Predict the structure of Transaldolase.
Amino acid sequence: MATISKLSNPCLNYSSSTSFGIRSSSSAPKFFIDLRTSNSNSNRLSDSKLSFVINHSIRGSLCIKCSQADGNGSSVKRTTLHDLYERQGQSPWYDNLCRPVTDLIPLIESGVRGVTSNPAIFQKAISTSNSYNDQFRELVQAGKDIDSVYWELVVKDIQDACKLFETIYDKTDGGDGYVSVEVSPILADDTEGTVEDAKWLHKKVERSNVYIKIPATAPCIPSIKEVISLGISVNVTLIFSLARYEAVIDAYLDGLEASGLSDLSRVTSVASFFVSRVDTLVDKMLEKIGTPEALDLRGKAANAQAALAYKLYQKKFSGPRWEALVKKGAKKQRLLWASTSVKNPAYPDTLYVDPLIGPDTVSTMPDQALQAFIDHGSVARTIDSNVSEAEGIYSALEKLGIDWGFVGSQLELEGVDSFKKAFDSLIDSLQEKANTLKLVSL
């Protein structure tokens, strides 16, 4: 359940004149929505839609940035998430999902407009919570195999979350309010297997506002085209390079053209471009080079590449080919910034959110990034505010010997491997739990 807490160490003081460096921030104590579960004995204020835990030891004015009045003159709570969407056209999503799914309600109230999940998120959710026990027991006792049990648990969470975001989906005519669920990670190198899994998962969830996530591996690029052509909306994930991103866009366009549908308005997609992991790898390479020039570029690679991805997005979704699809109701495949939490504690906690704001984009944020942005994020169009600087950083890194192709390939391998390990680990733990349950039942 969401709680309101006081930041004991609100934020670092930092400054820079560019959108790819570090932005200034007030050092005054602030309050933020705490997305973590509270085990304290604090008093709880609640209504049917929103619950907060108030810690009475806190002194000062509790507020969510920023309060404004609605059209009737009454005070309504607004956050920077509302401003982000209404002023800049960027949709804030939440990168996490677990039971009880109703914990998403206060996040929706605070401006969250969609949810992303992945095998690692479900591994953590299912293995660390007792909320899945009753359904798990019923499925095992019904004779379901462990793979089936896993998907039943996942699909229920996705369906329940889709219901919560249905109003946003309807109000935006399918423009927002999506919940993403990924095909089995063991199929990352299987073109046909991914297509069949996507079809099965889409039918199993049976919700209009679900996104089927497909990794942007080379074998899955044709899968993306095929699934889109079937009229299934897709979240393409694990994109780490400009070259692969362009292939993803082409797969989307090819899929729309191959669909044969006269109305393309209900076939939508996002392209999940990962950011912080890029800096994690490139920073290590720069530290190995060790020159002053190399060290000065730390923390700048990811956002520079992201700015160039947005430039590519603008180019590809314009011109005669795209206009022909627009006449059939086609919607742009929005760029989604993923991996937005800061991995290096020396960096500002909104480093992968503030500089990547632009229209028709999505920023999906885990707890850490979401808390930070609500508390002290800046709402301004930044993604294309200095493209020439981004190009300069990208080129400077190349001149230092940073191979962008290698960076993309290495991060893709690591991402796929991470999801496979999370999936295998969860399946193993569920099997062990099922075995124990069966022994107890004897």
